[in-house]
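TOPIC: backbone geometry
CONTENTS: sequence, structure tokens:
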Amino acid sequence: MSGLLGQKIGMTSVYNEHGDLVPVSVIKAGPCKVVSVRTKDKDGYFALQLGFGEKKEKRTSKPILGQFKKKELSPSLVLKEFKFPPESEFKVGDELNLSMFSEGEKIKVRSRSKGKGFQGVMRRHGFGGVGGTTHGQSDRLRAPGSIGASSYPSRVFKGQRMAGRKGFENVTISNLKIHKIIPEQNLILIRGAVPGAINSIVELLKR
């Protein structure tokens, strides 16, 4: 599955050919340079390791910096592998851009969702709360209630819905439609919402 790395810029609205206002996510995708080529003979599979963005040398570890200097490349901010067909003729140093996508095409988008921090059961799982405000009950309105039986099985079942960290998970959304491509600015407009906060790294995957 071939793809490209990008950075989420934000959301806006544009008009389509029918005059309807369409919400879109704006992503700066590429250009991504080929940092390494995985081959069937050497690695057991065929893939391309793509680099996106720029990173200062002083903020790059010496082993990683040595690999870039050996290939005469500047350090990349993000490295990610994408499967490409074996007949693809790419070599280290090549650049991939938005030319692999077309307007109207449906793609997969993968990113890390926004982190919401530690949340209670009402916000995290949609609990309705326990009881009302009668009978002197003042501190149980947003409580989870009972979390299990007493005598048997005398334990809390795995997966019990409780308070905890919400968000900051890898999320993949399929069948998102490309509304428009602006190649001169490396921008791609995708209809609908894309997971992740502003400036987060996004993977664009061909289906």
The radius of gyration is 23 Å. Residues 31-96 form a domain with the Double Stranded RNA Binding Domain fold (CATH 3.30.160.810). The CA atoms of residues 108 and 174 lie 4 Å apart.
